[in-house]
Amino acid sequence: MELNFESTRSELPSESAGGMPKDRRREALGNLCALPDEILCAILIYLTPLDVARLSCVSSVMYILCNEEPLWMSLCLNNVNRHIEYKGSWKKTALHQLDLPNEYHEDCKKSLHFDGFNSLFLYRRLYRCYTSLNGFSFDSGTVERKENINLEEFQIEYDGRKPVLISGLADNWPARKSWTTEQLLVKYGDAKFRLSQRSSQKITMNFKDYLSYMQIQHDEDPLYIFDEKFGDNAPELLEDYIVSHLFQEDYFDILDSEKRPPFRWLIIGPERSGASWHVDPALTSAWNTLICGRKRWALYPPGRVPLGVTVHVNEEDGDVNIEGPSSLQWWLDFYPLLPDSDKPIECTQLPGETIYVPSGWWHCVLNLETTIAVTQNFVNSKNFEFVCLDMAPGYRHKGVCRAGVLALDEGSFEDVKKNGLCLDNNLSYSDPTRKEKRLRICQPIEESKNENDSNGLSKCHGLGSLEFSYDINFLAMFLDKERDHYNTLWGSGNCIGQREMREWLWKLWLGRPGLRDLIWKGACLALNAGKWFERVGEICAFHGLPSPTHDEKLPVGTGSNPVYLVADYAIKIFVEDGLEASLYGLGTELEFYSLLHKVNSPLKNYIPGVLASGILLFENGSYTVLPWDGKGIPEVIANCSFTSMKHKKIDYPFGVWSKKQFEYQNAGMSPYKLGNSGECSLIWPYVVTKRCRGKIFAELRDTLPWEDALNLASFLGEQLHNLHLVPCPSSNASLLTEGEKIELLHDNRFLEIAADKIHITAEWNLFISTLNRKRKDLSDRLTKWGDPIPRKLIEKVAEYIPHDSAEFLDIFENEKEVCKSCTWVHSDVMDDNIYMTQCFSDSFSGGSTYSLPAEDGYVNCYRSSSGQKYSWHPSHILDFSNLSIGDPILDLIPIHLDVFRGDTRLLKQFLKSYGLALGRRKSLNELVEDNRFHRLSYRTMCYCILHDENILGAIFSLWKELRMAKSWEEVEETVWGDLNDYAAGFS
Predict the structure, then answer these.
(1) Is the pLDDT of residue 801 over 80?
(2) Were 266 and a residue from 81, 230, 320, 866 both cysteine, which residue would form a disulfide, CB within 3.0 to 4.6 Å?
(3) What homologous superfamily does CATH list for 144-305+324-381?
(4) For residue 275, what is the enclosing H or E element?
(5) Secondary structure of 180-216 as H, E, C letters
(6) Which CATH architecture fits 25-130?
(7) Domain ranges (residues) in the chain
(8) Mean pLDDT of the chain, nearest integer
């Protein structure tokens, strides 16, 4: 396409025949003039700052478009690395970030002016940048104002029902006097605070720099401080306010601070800044107290999407993204279009007032002047079920919660009512190419014939008399109740992860027994707990076990498979990653238990014994239990066509080597494709083991005596020593038949490894092939995980990880022989998979129970009420469903990061007890000259990076200082450097 741009030398306007300046748009833009300015500006955002600077030299109109401050603001924020220094304009700030030599910096020149060009889009944007909001205050009276309201009145009239403005709650806060920009500057001028802006990155600015920015900026959507970590950076601020008696109930406070989702924010912003239309995360409720300044609020009840806002719901994981104008743009451009019947409820919040926003309510906030506020989100009895519903996997119900009947297709509600299901089966597994469902609000309706139909939503989809109701029973109808809630892809936008969600429900179940009826209702929404309880009951009935009691209804722990403790038994139903993966999980576990007893390994004394195992089948409306000991292929499985591999008639066709081949095939595959077993989704393998008595380590961690922590490290070293000495089954029999081959990317070419080579070679080939597959989409995967993984390190990861995993494993000699053998790997020794038992010893005089604090949060001892000293000793290691075969160093990753929380003293104690070799001192491959391949720390760090789980997120959460690391070597040395001093680590 020819653009025919004009020369930039033409600074003076050319005149038309009538003496008027002619429109220079055609000559300046060429064929691009067909695009509206809005589209052109949107395209420019995707260019680099240097490309935009070059493009500004092409023509006069391009000069105008490419020198807009809103454009340079977007370019700057999209390219900044966490911390930002404002240089008086966004163009100067962006160019400063590029570290250009001085001669390339722009000189102060007189601005260029070009006649013959006008743009309503640019004019409106300029107007928003400079408009004053002095007279913008408005109060419709639709938000009630209350003073010193009592708890009973709040709970009856407002909690979970409607917004309210409350005065008097903050009258005695120190913040009312000390939270001014001047005083905050004195105390926290150098402190870094997070900024709110439309970017996936977390950007910070020193408070003194931000205050300077506020005073000189003219942005249409100014940055404002919206920091959920302010309590970490400036903990004294937490002492300046207290949570009102109205909002004390918060069910999230049962979680440890590092696992609790963000819930409180410090908010500081200038005139024109604010929060665009949104619904608070996870359908939580919120309170917001204004310390100084004025805020204008607009609110809509649940299900009423504001004009100009688009809701995006991802059909794979249910992630909800909201796209809309800035708060100022909405009030200027969209608000005037609304008839009175469609206007939101509004109020202007004054200093000292607290506004309460119920669960699911849409709200938009505009700062009319410089404001300082604090806000918190919370879960209580009124919104608990809505929060649990929002955590449930799927997309339909999440769309309905926010967009009401706009989320429904024609006739879909009738299908729900007729079939009693939340989704038609054909919609349950949607076309994976259709990633996103877009839900738009209809145009405003001037007159509504139905007074109860306040915004005419039912007219948009022809759904007749259907009325949206923000009622948990109504909304739950749109759940996909047949979806496996344990196994479905979890939305990255959920406020907490699946593991944390299960831990949250379980902690509530144990810690607040008076709420169990409510917790059960929430678990049925989030976990489909009622179905799993029904299934475990069938297993108990078949094996003659006691039926689960009311207190045993909820699955325990945080694992990816539902586990029930019933009387003296533990019952695990395998669901993780779908039926095929579950069969390999149970098959491998049963194969391992059999081998463990065959070789009489001492490890068998520290693993719960298997009492029964089998397959649960749901067919024709009823359940059938089929016993299975892992040997042979059950007929119900043989009749399924889901399996991706041919299984030979051997003792354990779903044993570890078939599992390894399955892992290789799935390496690098999209999570959406895993676990979708189609017609075989109503089959569940299970195992019954003897129940361990005592407590899991996760419950004792914070109060465990240091001596007991050292004993635990020694115990784990001994048991991992025993595990890694258990002989691996031969891969010849189950991995490859004669003539079959596998591919391995090695030394930049594919080698064909024939099946007749020694079985150890086949083991390592499969292991390395899997790692190499995981390397292919590594940067994309780390980018998707995002914070707290530093962006700079993600950019360097390809340089750090070897191109061929065989290099750092150091296993080949002349591409034929192997240096060392694989071992069994548990791969999931975490704080909830270790059981501890209580032991009593010496008696002391005294009465009450007490503990003495010691370093690192451990205590020195426990004493019972009778004065007896007691301690906790590890007794069992649980959950061998993730068993694999590979490099034994893999087992150190969960132990050091999850159990030891990075404590190097415990790691050293573990290694002292472990005592087995973990590598060779010198490479046998003469082609490998890089010294890093001889470091155990390097190999372990590479495994962390290539791991299926977000191990890096745990690392950068434990070692927060590493978020500023400049290289992966720095991270490696900090986390794993002690491994290089491990004397027994080399053979």
Answers:
(1) yes
(2) 230
(3) Cupin (2.60.120.650)
(4) strand 274-279
(5) CHHHHHHHHCCCEEEEECCCCCCEEEEHHHHHHHHHH
(6) Up-down Bundle (1.20)
(7) 25-130, 144-305+324-381, 574-689, 757-820+917-985
(8) 82
